[in-house]
Amino acid sequence: MSQSTMIHHSPAWQRLVAHAADMRDVHLTSLFTEHSGRHARFTRRGAGLTLDLSKHRWRDETLAMLLELAREADLERAIARLQNGERVNLSEDRPALHTALRLPPEARLVVEGEDVVPDVHDTLARMQAMVEKCHAGQWRGATGRPITDVVNLGVGGSDLGPLMVTHALADYRPRDVHQVDIHFASTMDGSQLADYLTRFNPATTLFVLSSKSFTTIDTLSNASTARDWLMTRLADGGQDTEMGELVMRQHFVGVSAKPEKMSEWGIDPRHQLRFWEWVGGRYSLWGAIGLPIALAVGMENFRELLAGAHEMDRHFRDTPLEDNLPVLLALAGIWNVNFLDVRAHSILPYDGRLEYFASYLEQLEMESNGKSVTNDGEITPYSTCPVLWGQLGPNAQHAFYQLLHQGTQAVECDFIAPVRRYDRVEDPATRAHLKAQHRLTLANCIAQSRVLMLGDEALPSDAPRPSHKRYRGNQPSTTLLLDRLTPRTLGSLIALYEHKVFVQATIWDINPFDQWGVELGKQIATETEQILASRRGAEALDDSSRGLLDVVWQAQDAT
Ligand code: F6P
Fold first, then answer.
1. Ligand 1 proximity of 186 Cβ (cutoff 6 Å)
2. Most buried in the list 31, 45, 188, 224, measured by CB within 10 Å?
């Protein structure tokens, strides 16, 4: 695409620029007084989710123009190409088929001459066998004792998705099975792992090595520390070769798109789970990378998670753009970023179970759409992914909401909450207390988005207030209500954001499925590590790096 045919030259984009000039000074409060029934006009439902987009600084005609922009970007065809397995990941020349991981067994999806669904379900069946063995207390360590602790070693997409879902679905842990606790270690400095190694029994600990590439140094460093720990404690430092073999077989599972690398590392082929190059790391929790989730909540619940995501996939594919949840969520973002200059986005779940949801979305959104080059290699003359961060809403109220309410930045906020909670708590008195806490949380969720919108107008009286107590309001927000937080609705929620990212990438004409921006840092870190260890070659570095290395060496020499 040449400069002149880029999306910002399209008639819809130009109309939106002109329209934004009119909308820039319109306060959200006046939009609500223009027409009654704004909530109904800007709210859509689907897959157990209610999406209220009424608190955005837009009108009906804004949305109509944004939908026109989406059509000019040929969005409908892009959605079909994604789900049909076409090579939408242009820089790596391959499909991006996370949607295939949640297809039901009876579906067929022929990608480049081969139906991928049987392989997907074969992997699910192998996961199920592993999960059932653990839950039956039949997965035994090298000394014959059943496994009690599973540690996932992975980072980025091989950590954040499983961590987030395992935490979110903790209520769904099966009770009538042999209990296995799931833990996560991601950081290359070994902080999490070091703690586990002091507390866990090597005889009953299983490590899952999760790495699509099986080359990620963070994960391989943790894995090698774990292997040495097991060997020292169970196999006489590897001297006892029979025990050493048992350790490798019974204490390690590998999950990767590179079976040969897993074998090289020593993972028994029977304990290798595969996925495919056509699944992006940050889109991979739906298959073998989801093993920790399945171990935590059981395979039935894991399949429910997939079913919820699949429901959203069908909604995304089959629903007209004007009622399509991911499309509308994406368009609200495009409007804010590209036309109203709102370039920060906060994710605010009002449910402690979604503690890791914002971290998960940080990777999903910013690693996918943090790009400044179009698919044709042109520099994007428009903004792309905003800075996105978040925290549990109730905790964030006592941390950074001050900035949302009275700071100088415009911030788009996503408020997320389940409508019902605690129905399954058995003790009636505790249930009543917890339901009251849930009510309090919902009230805060609704109140905060209202205050961000209205500012001082939310106050019952208009008595004069000193300027430090004034709220200007007018912060745009989305409210997303889940009927309940279940495996199914969580699957739909995650898929909603995956597709939102895809819609925005399509309009911005960038590739959401590669991440070349992280490669240079990895390369330079490898070189720096060599200099740090050998103390040779620092003279070629910049002054700051040299100075910092000197501080480290002096400290090492002093001890
Ligand atoms: O460095 C970024 C990244 O490649 C992410 O995209 C990925 O999720 C993470 O590292 C982990 O990669 P892998 O699963 O190959 O270990």
1. no
2. 31
